[in-house]
Write a structure and sequence with these properties.
The complex is a heterodimer of chains A (369) and B (394). Chain A is of the alpha+beta class. Chain A has helices at residues 7-23, 26-34, 43-52, 70-82, 89-102, 105-116, 204-234, 248-276, 282-308, 319-330, 336-350, 357-367, and strands spanning 122-124, 127-133, 136-145, 152-156, 162-165, 172-177, 186-198, 238-239, 242-243. In chain A, α1 runs parallel beside α4 (70-82), α7 packs parallel to α9 (282-308) and α8 packs antiparallel against α9. The model of chain A is unreliable at 353-369 (pLDDT under 50). Chain B is α+β, with helices and mostly antiparallel strands. In chain B, strands 1-4-5-8 form a 4-stranded mixed β-sheet. Classes of the chains: A alpha+beta (369), B alpha+beta (394). Chains A and B meet through α8, α9, α11 and α12 of A and α4, α8, α9, α10 and α12 of B.
Chain lengths: 369, 394
């Protein structure tokens, strides 16, 4: 039984955290928030990504990637969530999965080395309507992250296929929206007979699953980051001549949130493993993780505002960064209700045959021969 | 990451499954069976079966063979826990001894105490109860007053214990007594092994046990009164006066993936509730479906948490106060499962005890109200999490 991070993964997590603490602390997130002219995609993060290979964490080594798995990608998402880190790295990382899993050898050779070298930014459309006719795409996609800086857009077509579009005027028109959470940038993208090429393999479902797992880990990171900051604050803030962290109304709430955050971390870590290792319960695991992380991130970030009092409601404070990022993540890749419905369906279908600890163990042994 | 058990562990599973298959009568596995029996009769059946299991080598899975254990791995212990529930094996009659005293003796007991305690515990020759709470010392355990005065090589005990689970069946008690009055009330407490009965089975001099009827109608716990009861000094575990440390160690002691049986049990209860909802035409109710989903999520998190704890255990990490996280997750979730049962059953839950199919669900629902109290209430667990894990001030 080994359900925890291994030494390499722990080391990677330490490197990521140390890098962000030193080079992109929460103050830097405020600067992106406050600078109206900023494109939301900090240059310094891409420099680091270039040196470390983070954007190509799952890309095969033959294309210059790190050749690691979804677990390592999930660690990046977690650390990004923990620090409310903005930028197009996470969406590039996910969109690259469409190429890694679904592209032709020629498409891979063209794009994967560029991603690995930090020379291409990618994005992915998940909502909207788009159809593919005569090697062009026409339609509209909404809530597309960082389309305004993307070199390549992976478009989800209404028929379930995926295609690649290089955004060029006038066939691709990109409008950047001013979103509540300024640790991302949302765009509306209109395609009018934009030249496109389809991916030969149908990987939409796999991509959605991976997006769900990464988002769940981002949210688990948000929850832990918000909890840690709140705990630190109530250890120093005094009222009624006492530290507010000594009051049970605060203590018990934070204890419950620690339990919930711990569970969010377990579930999102397992989901990454289950999807990567093609476990039979991968869909279920991803839904459990997303539903749990949605709720936990929402609850912890709300408590962060509440327990900081008036200062927690100010623009200058960190609390709203966490709260808004949690809100955004809650509705990406399935809201809580959506995933809970999936889980209920699975549970009802499997009642009397519910997965057990032992069956999971046996299943894996059987699957790996 | 690898959530498989080792080959040796899977082999153990297969052997144990076969033994359970052959040694648990089919009728015992029916819903509501155990609760349909007269409690004393059921207790004796469970006791006898458990001894048979120990003789077959399936007891004390993780404890050394020299003391009567199996000398197995934490993974085998986890498998044992899960399979016992899956096969609806009779539940242990020595739960406090197995869960708390055994591990404590293995870690802190003398060689003689290990020899004296473990084997008779595993073979149910001695049934143990726990003497911690007193009328004025519940959550505030350090307020305990049961007096133990030194007289030669014995302590003379005067006072009372209460909420003592298994008091009516126990041969011995492991308990906390006050051996001296100190300024710091956490000092002067001693952890003592107390004979409640004489070899002939009658109560020892100065010991009186009275049952208390619980809200579920059972008489599993009781009061124990001590009037000049003599207990040998050699029965101290640890050192005289440091019983508080021994007790804290014991209470935080969750060896192995100890909430896996809870996961397995509650997950099956949820399946039974789904079946009940189907039978009552309530499975399309969006509210019920939503609640099923919530419970599945929390139980799945519990399962993963247990597997993580098991991993940490195998890596030799001290889980310490993390057992409070585990207890909060399982006990609070179990109450939610119970509430779902009554919501699905509606007023039928009132007469559920008379129906084979629902008797266990009702019984478990009633028990769930005690689970956030015993072993440290949820409020105490939250204090522990906040102060010990998050470092918040007292």
């Amino acid at each position: 039984m080994f359900f925890t991070l291994d030494e390499d993964q722990r080391a990677m997590q330490t490197v990521l955290r140390d890098y962000l603490r030193a080079n992109f602390p929460i103050r830097a997130v405020h600067e992106v928030y406050d600078n109206e002219a900023h494109d939301g995609d900090p240059v310094e993060l891409w420099q680091a990504a270039r040196e470390s290979g983070w954007a190509a964490v799952m890309v095969d080594e033959q294309y210059g990637g790190l050749g690691l798995g979804l677990l390592e990608a999930a660690l990046i998402a977690r650390c990004w969530g923990e620090g409310c880190v903005p930028g197009s790295l996470l969406i590039t990382l996910l969109a690259t999965e469409a190429l890694r899993l679904g592209a032709s050898p020629a498409q891979k050779s063209e794009w994967l080395p560029r991603v690995a070298a930090g020379q291409a930014k990618l994005t992915l459309t998940t909502t909207g309507r788009a159809s593919f006719v005569g090697n062009t795409v026409t339609g509209e996609a909404t809530f597309v992250e960082y389309a305004h800086v993307a070199d390549l857009i992976v478009v989800s077509l209404s028929d379930g296929r995926l295609c690649l579009v290089r955004p060029t005027e006038p066939t691709t028109e990109i409008t950047t929206q001013d979103a509540l959470d300024r640790s991302t940038r949302f765009c509306t993208v209109r395609f009018d007979h934009a030249p496109a090429e389809c991916l030969p393999n149908d990987v939409m479902e796999e991509l959605t699953l991976r997006g769900t797992v990464l988002k769940a880990n981002d949210l688990a990171g948000i929850a832990r980051g918000a909890l840690t900051r709140t705990v630190d604050y109530v250890k120093t803030r005094q009222q009624f001549g006492k530290l507010v962290g000594s009051f049970q109304a605060i203590k018990h709430s934070l204890a419950d949130l620690h339990v919930a955050t711990t569970m969010a971390e377990h579930s999102s870590l397992y989901a990454a493993h289950a999807v990567e290792a093609a476990q039979g319960d991968r869909q279920f695991a991803a839904s459990v993780a997303k539903a749990k992380c949605n709720e936990t991130a929402r609850d912890v970030t709300a408590a962060m505002i509440q327990f900081h009092g008036g200062i927690g409601y100010t623009w200058e404070h960190d609390a709203h960064l966490f709260f808004k990022r949690a809100k955004r993540g809650e509705y990406q890749y399935g809201n809580t209700s959506f995933h809970r419905k999936q889980i209920t369906r699975t549970a009802i279908a499997g009642a009397r045959h519910a997965p057990t600890v032992s069956q999971v163990g046996q299943h894996v042994s059987a699957g790996r021969g | 990451m690898d959530l498989r058990f080792s080959d040796a562990e899977e082999l153990f599973r297969a052997e144990f499954q076969q033994w359970l298959e052959e040694n648990i009568p089919t009728s015992w596995r029916a819903r509501g069976f155990w609760r349909s029996l007269e409690p004393e009769h059921a207790f004796e059946m469970r006791r006898e079966w458990e001894t048979k299991k120990a003789v077959a080598g399936y007891a004390g899975i993780q404890w050394p063979t020299e003391y009567g254990g199996r000398g197995g791995t934490p993974g085998m212990r986890a498998i044992y826990d899960v399979e016992m529930v899956r096969y609806r094996a009779p539940i242990t009659v020595n739960t406090l001894g197995l869960s708390f005293l055994g591990p404590t003796i293995m870690a802190l007991g003398t060689e003689q105490q290990k020899k004296d305690v473990i084997r008779p515990l595993l073979f149910n020759e001695v049934i143990w109860c726990q003497g911690f709470s007193e009328p004025n010392a519940g959550s505030d355990l350090a307020a305990l007053q049961l007096k133990a005065e030194l007289d030669g090589d014995c302590y003379v005990l005067n006072g009372q214990k209460i909420w003592t689970s298994y008091a009516m069946h126990a041969d011995k008690m492991f308990g906390l007594v006050r051996t001296s009055k100190e300024e710091n009330r956490h000092r002067g407490i001693t952890f003592l092994l107390i004979d409640l009965k004489k070899p002939d089975g009658t109560y020892a001099d100065g010991i009186e046990v009275r049952p208390l009827k619980q809200m579920n109608g059972a008489r599993d716990f009781g009061e124990v009164f001590f009037t000049d009861a003599h207990i040998p000094v050699a029965n101290v575990v640890g050192e005289p006066g440091n019983g508080w440390q021994v007790a804290m160690f014991l209470l935080s002691f969750e060896r192995g993936a100890s909430a896996l049986p809870q996961y397995q049990t509650f997950r099956r209860e949820l399946d039974d509730i789904i079946d009940l909802a189907r039978g009552m035409d309530r499975l399309e109710d969006p509210e019920i479906r939503d609640r099923i989903g919530r419970n599945v999520i929390e139980l799945e998190c519990l399962r993963l948490h247990c597997l993580h704890q098991l991993t940490e255990n195998e890596r030799g990490q001290n889980l310490g106060m993390n057992s409070s996280v585990t207890k909060l997750q399982w006990s609070e979730t179990h109450q939610d499962v119970g509430e779902l049962f009554t919501d699905v059953a509606g007023l039928h839950h009132q007469i559920a005890a008379g129906i084979d199919e629902t008797r266990d669900l009702l019984g478990s629902f009633m028990s769930s109200r005690s689970e956030t109290i015993w072993g440290g209430s949820s409020q105490i667990q939250r204090n522990i999490v906040a102060e010990q894990l998050l470092g918040l001030p007292k």
